[in-house]
Amino acid sequence: MPLRPVAAALLTAAALAVATAAPVPATAAITAAAPGAPAAGTAAVTDTPSGTFQQVTGFGANPGNLAMYTYTPAGLPGGAPLVVALHGCVQSATDYYRNSGWTKFADQYGFAVVFPQTGSANNSLSCFSWFDAGKDARGVGEAESVAEMVTKAKALYGSDAQRVFVTGLSAGGGMAADLLADYPDVFAGGAIDSGLPAHCATTQSAASGCQNTDQGLTPAQWGDKVRAAYPGYTGSWPRVAIWQGSADTTVRPVNATELRDQWTNVQGVDRRPTGTRSLPGSTTQELYADASGRPAVALFTVSGMGHGLAVHPGSGTDQCGATGAYFLDTICSSYYTAQFWGLDGGTGPTSPGLPAPSGLTATPTAATSVSLGWQSVSGAASYRVYRDGTQVGSATGTAFTDTGLTAGTTYGYTVAAVDASGTVGARSATVTATTPGGAPQCFTASNYDQVLAGRATQSGGLAYALGSGQNMGLWNTFVTHTLKQTGPRYYVLADSQC
C-alpha cells in the first residue's frame, strides 16, 4: 500500500488486486479491534491448535495510541526470543498474524510474537508514523508504545531480553528501521520489508520524497541519522535484514540501497558484499559480514516483485504465509529472516562461498589498461573482477587485464573467487591503480556537492579536501571551489588553476 500518510484515498479492491497480483478479500482489510478498544486484561481473539492470538491491554502509558496483540505457542518456555511484527498501511495486526508466516516459525522454533496495531484514529490509512519526529523517536509516540509492549511481553512470557527482534512491512518497515535506531539497547536485530531508511523523513511533507527518490546522502550521513537517534549509545548495533522487490513503484528500490548504506556504515562493515547467493523466488541474497565473518547486514532482492511482503504458502520447510493484499507469493521472507537472526537455533548465516583472494596487485600497463594478479584460492573454479564495484570480467586463472580505460584516471579493483556451484565468495580488499598520461582532473562544484561526490569530507559544518585536508570553508551549496586530483583519493584546492 502506498505509504502516503494522508490525502490518498483508499485503493479500491480492483486496484489492490492489480497492485498485488493476488485476489483481494471482499471483507475490509482492517478486521481486529481498533487501538484503545476497551478490554480487561487480555481478551482471546483466536486460538489455534498450537497457540493463542490475543489482545493485551494495560501495557503502559501508550502515548502512540496503539493496540497490542500477541501470539504465543502452546507450552512456550521462559527465556524464549520475542519478535515484534508491524503491519503495513490499510492492514491490521490480525492480517499480519494470518498472512505473514511468523506464527509458523513461532511454533516451530519457539518464540512469542507481538503484533502492534495502529488505526484510522492515528492515520487515515492506518499507517505507522515513520515520518513524524514526534511519534517515531525514542521515548515518544508510537515508538515508545512499541517499547512498552516489549516490556509487557517480557513480563508476561519471560522473554529473553537479549533476543528481541523487530520487523515490519512498508510503513511498518519504516517504523521498524526507526525503532532499531531509537532502541538499539532493546532490539538485537531487525528486518525492513519494502520499507525506508531509519529517520529518512521527519515531516509528513518529506515522506513522499523518501519513498520515490534518491536522497543524495553519503553512507556516513545515513549512519548519522541512526547514531543521532540515541546519542551516546556505545553498545552493539542490531543486525539488519533488508527485503526489496525490484519492481516496487511504491517504495522504490533505491530505499534498499540507502538502507544497506545506512546499516553497513553503522556496523562499520564494507558496502561490498562478502557473499552472494541465489534463493528461490528469483531472489538474490547479499551478505555483509564483520571482521569475524558474521553477517551484520543482509540484502534480499526479489526480482520482479512489487510492493508487499514476500510469502510462499505451503507446508515445505521454507514455505509460509498466505497471499492477499500486499502479501505476495514469491519466497517465504519470514523463514530466511528467522534464520538470519538465528531463531532456528543456529547463530545465523555465515558468508557463503570461498574466502577472498589475497595478494591482489594492480599495475598500469598503458594509458588505457591495468594488469591484475592475485593468489589462487583452493576450490575456485573461476574469479570475478570488479572495477569500482562493478564486475568488468572473469578469469579462470589468477591474472586479468582490464582495458578500455581513460588516461590519468584512478580505478579501484577487487576480486572474488567462484566455486563449482557458481556461488560467489567474499571480495578482496580494494587496490587502486592510476593510468598514466592525461592532465590531472579538476572538479568545480559547491562544497556540499564535493562532499557528496567523495572528493571532500565535512566536519563541524566545514568542508575539507580529501587527502590534503585543506579547509574549503562552509559545507553548503553557496561556497564553490575547484579541486584537482593529484593522486588516488588525494585532492588539492586549485581555484583558477585548471
Strand content: 25-35%
- The radius of gyration over CA amounts to 24 Å
Number of helices: 10
Q: Report the helical percentage.
A: 10-25%
Helix/strand class: alpha+beta
What's the overall geometry?
globular
**Head-to-tail CA distance between termini:** 51 Å
Tell me about the largest β-sheet. Answer: 11 strands, mixed
Per DSSP E runs of 2 or more residues, the count of β-strands stands at 27
- Biggest sheet, strands in spatial order? 1-2-3-5-4-6-7-8-11-10-9
Q: Which residues form runs of ≥5 with pLDDT under 50? A: 4-49
- The averaged pLDDT comes out at 87
Describe the structure.
The protein has 498 residues and is of the alpha+beta class. Helix content is 20%, strand content 30%. It contains ten helices and 27 strands. Residues 4-49 have low confidence and may be disordered.
List the helices and strands and how they pair.
Elements: H1 13-20, E1 42-47, E2 51-56, E3 67-73, E4 82-86, H2 93-99, H3 102-110, E5 112-117, H4 141-157, E6 164-169, H5 171-182, E7 189-193, H6 204-212, H7 219-227, E8 239-245, H8 254-267, E9 275-279, E10 283-289, E11 295-302, E12 309-311, E13 327-329, H9 333-341, E14 361-366, E15 369-373, E16 382-387, E17 390-395, E18 399-402, E19 410-418, E20 424-427, E21 431-434, E22 442-446, H10 447-452, E23 456-459, E24 462-465, E25 471-474, E26 480-487, E27 490-493
Parallel strand pairs: 4-5, 4-6, 6-7, 7-8, 8-11, 12-13
Antiparallel strand pairs: 1-2, 2-3, 3-5, 9-10, 10-11, 14-15, 15-18, 16-17, 16-19, 19-20, 19-21, 22-26, 23-24, 24-25, 26-27
